[in-house]
Structures are given as C-alpha cells and as structure tokens.
C-alpha cells in the first residue's frame, strides 16, 4: 500500500525534514509532485495551485498548512465542503511587520523620506524638510490580532497612543481602547495614523474607501500591510489627489506587482514597498514551530493545536 504523502511546497532545512519524519514515520515527504502522487497527498504545506483541482477531487487530502498568514487565495469553500483542515502562519511575521510600520512612521515624521530624495538631487534642504513628533500621536490599528498586538507592544515605548478595531470591539492586550469595525468611521477622525492589518474576506473587501479617507485628519497617515483588496484603490487615489490626508505607505495592492501605469507610483505623498513588510529573519524555524506542533496534534487526534482557520470566516 502506498504511504500517504506530506507535501512541502518549499524546501526546508534537513533538520526540519528529519523532525517531520520522526513524528510521521508512516508518511512520505515530498517537495515535488507528479500526477501519480496526487491521490496520496494527505497533508500539504503550502498550496500548489496547478494541482488544485486534482487535490480537491481526492479523498486523501485532510489538512493544508498555509505558509502565509493570509488565506484568502485558497479555495476555502472547497475545503469546507470536503472537511479539509486549514491552519495558517499567523504570528510569524508580527515583529517584522511591526518594525516595518515603525520604520515608515519615523521615515515620514523625521523627514528621512524627503532627505533621501534630496540626497539624490545633491540638495541641502534643511529648512524645507517636513518633520514632526511621533510621540503623543493617536494610532488606530485595524486588526488587533498577533501583528496588531505586537505593534502596540513595540511602539508603546515611543509614546504613541494605540487604539484598536476588531470585529466586535472586544478588548485586546496593549490597546488603550478597542472598537467594533462597524464604528470605525466614527473613530477615524480622532486618529493621526490608521494602520490596516486586516485579512482578505467578504467583510473586509474595500473597507478602506472614500468614506474612511474623507474622515481622516488632513495631517493623517494611512498604512496598509494587510491585504490589498481591503483598500478601494481608485478611491484611495482620489483621496490622495485631493489631499484628504497627508501620506500613505502601501506594502500591498489589489494588483501585484503594481502596474507601471498606476498613478500611485508618481505621488509625492506615497511610499510604495513591494510586499516586503512580512519578510522575516529565521522564517523556517518560526514556521516549523507552528507546523510541527500541528503535525503532532493532527497525528494524535486529527485536530490542530495552533492557528486553525475557521473556514467560514476566512481567518
């Protein structure tokens, strides 16, 4: 009888392969798949899109471990119908994304972004450089999960007042106060900084739109490190053109790579980064802590102990 397969979409160090094999001696571990392998794949680490239809037609597939935190690109409805378990990489990128956000804010408030541009022109522009103080600012984190909580913890020592938005307004560690997502438009006018860290779901699609942008402070900053489709791109462009708020730092987009024709490239009040906020030092070790814990619990009782995704909600 053919052994069931644990498929790894990306290569991991030998030390982790050995740990997987020790935990699951009755499984094959593969980093490449053939057509003949597909009916035997029981666990998939990552999701090979080119084999999606075949994997979903197999009764053998039981669990998908997403490498990323976001899972909106996966066939969640199909997983739900077939009772396929799903877990994600939530928490791995929390420190990296928090540092990215803090770097963006310091770059803007301390005039570093402008200084880089002036350096390229060999211009000494001390008197014209914009500067401000980060300490004392009100920052609204839209999405109070692992990343939002890490951001709150990391930025607290800089004197920033951190507020949160989540589905119900339930309290979350490290926030001055939290509010439900339905009340976001009422809270935004009081905030100096709005940071989007939302997953991509039906409920969050285009949640950052003209209504929100129009209520921001003229001096406000908008940062998005969540999912690109949480932002209505055309309405964001209009808001920036009309200077409804001062500055946007965007790491994710509805279309990636961002097309050269998109006017966001040309705006002086926009910082574009190419989806790098989540790039994480020692990623393999951090990811494997999640996967190995889940593998142990899965083999024991067919349950996942870390980061199981509720398929109907998408996170």
Automatic annotation (TrEMBL):
It holds the Pfam family 2-Hacid_dh. CDD domains: PGDH_1. The keyword Oxidoreductase applies. Residues 103-277 form the D-isomer specific 2-hydroxyacid dehydrogenase NAD-binding domain. Keywords: NAD, Oxidoreductase. Residues 22-303 form the D-isomer specific 2-hydroxyacid dehydrogenase catalytic domain. One of its GO terms (molecular function) is NAD binding. Belongs to the D-isomer specific 2-hydroxyacid dehydrogenase family. This is D-isomer specific 2-hydroxyacid dehydrogenase. The lineage of its organism: Bacteria, Bacillati, Bacillota, Bacilli, Lactobacillales.
């Amino acid at each position: 009888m053919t052994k069931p397969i644990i498929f790894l979409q990306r290569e991991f160090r030998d030390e982790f392969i050995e740990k997987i094999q020790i935990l699951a001696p009755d499984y094959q571990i593969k980093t490449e798949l053939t057509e003949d392998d597909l009916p035997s794949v029981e666990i998939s680490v990552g999701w090979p899109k080119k084999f999606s239809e075949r994997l979903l037609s197999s009764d053998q597939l039981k669990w998908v471990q997403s490498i990323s935190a976001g899972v909106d690109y996966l066939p969640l409805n199909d997983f739900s119908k077939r009772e396929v378990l799903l877990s994600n990489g939530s928490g791995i990128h929390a420190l990296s994304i928090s540092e990215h956000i803090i770097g963006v804010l310091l770059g803007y408030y301390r005039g570093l972004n402008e200084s880089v541009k002036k350096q390229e022109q060999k211009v000494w522009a001390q008197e014209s450089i914009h500067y401000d103080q980060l300490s004392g600012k009100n920052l609204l984190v839209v999405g109070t999960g692992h990343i939002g909580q890490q951001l709150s913890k990391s930025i607290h020592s800089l004197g920033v007042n951190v507020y949160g938005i989540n589905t119900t307004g339930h309290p979350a560690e490290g926030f001055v106060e939290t509010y439900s997502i339905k009340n976001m438009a009422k809270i935004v006018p009081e905030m100096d900084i709005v940071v989007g860290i939302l997953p991509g779901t039906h409920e969050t699609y285009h949640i950052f739109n003209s209504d929100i942008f129009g209520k921001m402070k003229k001096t406000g900053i908008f940062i998005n490190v969540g999912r690109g489709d949480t932002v209505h791109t055309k309405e964001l462009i209009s808001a920036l053109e009309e200077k409804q708020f001062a500055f946007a730092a965007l790491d994710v987009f509805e279309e990636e790579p961002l097309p050269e024709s998109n006017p966001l490239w040309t705006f002086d009040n926009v910082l574009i980064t190419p989806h790098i906020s989540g790039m994480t030092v020692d990623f393999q070790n951090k990811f494997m802590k999640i996967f190995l814990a889940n593998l142990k619990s899965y083999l024991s009782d067919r349950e996942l102990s870390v980061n199981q995704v509720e398929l109907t909600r998408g996170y």
